[in-house]
Amino acid sequence: xxxxxxxxxxxxxxxxxxxxxxxxxxxxxxxxxxxxxxxxxxxxxxxxxxxxxxxxxxxxxxxxxxxxxxxxxxxxxxxxxxxxxxxxxxxxxxxxxxxxxxxxxxxxxxxxxxxxxxxxxxxxxxxxxxxxxxxxxxxxxxxxxxxxxxxxxxxxxxxxxxxxxxxxxxxxxxxxxxxxxxxxxxxxxxxxxxxxxxxxxxxxxxxxxxxxxxxxxxxxxxxxxxxxxxxxxxxxxxxxxxxxxxxxxxxxxxxxxxxxxxx
Length: 263
Ligand code: ADP
Ligand code: MG
Known about the structure:
Blueprint: H1 7-10, E1 25-34, E2 37-47, E3 52-56, H2 63-70, E4 78-83, E5 86-87, H3 95-99, E6 102-105, H4 117-127, H5 133-146, H6 162-174, E7 180-184, H7 192-207, E8 212-215, H8 219-225, E9 228-233, E10 236-241, H9 243-248, H10 253-262
Parallel strand pairs: 3-8, 3-9, 6-7, 7-8
Antiparallel strand pairs: 1-2, 1-4, 4-5, 9-10
Magnesium ion is lined by residues 63-64, 184-185, 215.
C-alpha cells in the first residue's frame, strides 16, 4: 500500500508550511511471531525527523525484535513499515538498499577483531557504497575525532576499553551516513564507569539532529534525551508519550509497576 503523503508532499509548490514533517520511520499494525508465539502485536510507531524515541520495557517485551523488524533483519507477519515514506516491507523493495540507510548498534560491541578500528569503520562505506579508500578513511577519521577517538584509528578492538569499542561501533554505524540510527541497549554490557562516555555520544548525536530509536534500561537517560518514550509490555506498545507524561504521569498500572521496579 502506498505511503500516505502530506498535502505538501503531493504538491511541492504549495505554500502550506503547517504540514508536519513526514516521519522518518513509521510502523503500522506490525505483528511478529516466532514459532507459535506472538512477540509483537499491533505495534504502531512514528518517528519524526531529528527526534529520539526510547523503547522501554521488561526483558522479553519485544524491544530488540521491534528494532530488528525496523531494519528488516526480521520479516514481519502482518502490518507495514515505512522509511522516509517508502514502504520497506513491500516485497519488491531492495532490502539491502534499505539497510544501508539505517545504522544499527547492538548491546555487545561486534567489531571485527582482526581488523583495525579504521578498517572496521571503512569496510561498509567501501564495499557497500563504493567509496574510495581515501574518501572512506577521511570520513572515518573525521567521525573518530568527533567521538573523541582520534588517536585510535590503527588500534585493534581488543586494545580498547568497552566504552571505546562501543563508540567505535557507533562511528561504524555513522560511516554510511544513515538516515536513522537504531541503538539496542548499547550500554548494557558496559562497566558502570564506561556508560557515561557512550551516553554522551548519543547526546551529541541528538544535538546534531540525528534521528534515533533506542532500546534502553537507563531510565534517567531516556527521560533526559527522548522526545518520545514507548513502554512495551508483552509485545504491545502499552503506553507512549513524552518523558514527562510517561515517567511523570503514567496512565497504565503495568507502566507504573514497571517504573516502580526499575527506577
Ligand atoms: P527485549 O529486547 O525487550 O528483551 P526481545 O525482542 O529480545 O525482547 O524478545 C521478545 C520475545 O521474543 C522474547 O520472548 C524472546 O524470547 C522472543 N524471541 C526473540 N527472538 C527470537 C527468535 N529468534 N526466536 C524465537 N523467539 C525469539
Ligand atoms: Mg533486547
